[in-house]
């Protein structure tokens, strides 16, 4: 299999973290990782559009030559393909909560964080936009409070002791925040501590560059 992605971009990063976590736990996936230089626009060129007509990364090329182009679908495919040691485990309730937190992080936080980063200090050179930054900052407050509250029972990671896709999705967005030299935590010491803790993990150290 081949994973087409690019460092720093949150959606590829969460899949790269997923692969690194699983490899650290002993699952050998044998996935070749190939950089598609999005700064040079390579993701919109025919070679990548033939893999993914939406021109986005990540894109996973399966051994049968077909492609999966959505980051969550890629991780779920890898969970199914390598079920021994899958991150999603436990009772229906535990699995339901793990899926719920991942969706909350991705749908309520990752978008505003990305837009906020581009509004304050865009790596793609978009103009600074204080109004947009303020709107996105406001949109982040309820989901950030939700996560701070989750951590109030002293769990080390978002779903407990075991790393989950929600941790990876959140950390992939936070790398982007660090890159643009911003801070979205505010007065949330538990989230800050989670961030420090997660970044000590060998998988994080091998993937995160910022
Ligand atoms: N829903 C998709 C979104 C993929 C996506 O938008 N990726 C970004 C990088 S984080 C991208 O390729 N942006 C370039 C573009 O949309 O032109 C997923 O979860 O994989």
Describe the model.
This protein has 2 domains: 2-81, 3-Layer(aba) Sandwich (Glutaredoxin), CATH 3.40.30; 92-207, Glutathione S-transferase Yfyf (Class Pi), Chain A, domain 2 (Up-down Bundle). It is 54% helix and 6% strand. It has 8 helices and 4 strands, in the order βαβαββαααααα. The mean pLDDT is 97. The longest helix is centred in the middle third of the chain and has 30 residues, at 92-121. The chain binds glutathione. Glutathione binds next to helix 1 and helix 3.
Core attributes:
210 residues; alpha+beta; Glutaredoxin; 2 domains; four-stranded mixed β-sheet; 8 helices; binds glutathione
Order of helices and strands: EHEHEEHHHHHH
Q: Shape, please?
A: globular
**Major beta-sheet overview:** 4 strands, mixed
Named CATH topology of the largest domain: Glutathione S-transferase Yfyf (Class Pi), Chain A, domain 2
Helix content: 40-55%
Low-pLDDT segments: none
How many runs of DSSP E, i.e. beta strands? 4
The CATH class name of the largest domain reads Mainly Alpha
What distance lies between the first and last C-alpha atoms, to the nearest angstrom? 27 Å
Total helices: the number is 8
Percent strand equals 5-15%
**Gyration radius from CA atoms, angstroms:** 17 Å
Task: Give me the side-by-side strand order of the main sheet.
Answer: 2-1-3-4
- What count of structural domains? 2
- Mean pLDDT equals 97
Question: What structural class do the secondary elements suggest?
Answer: alpha+beta
Tell me which CATH architecture of the largest domain applies here: Up-down Bundle
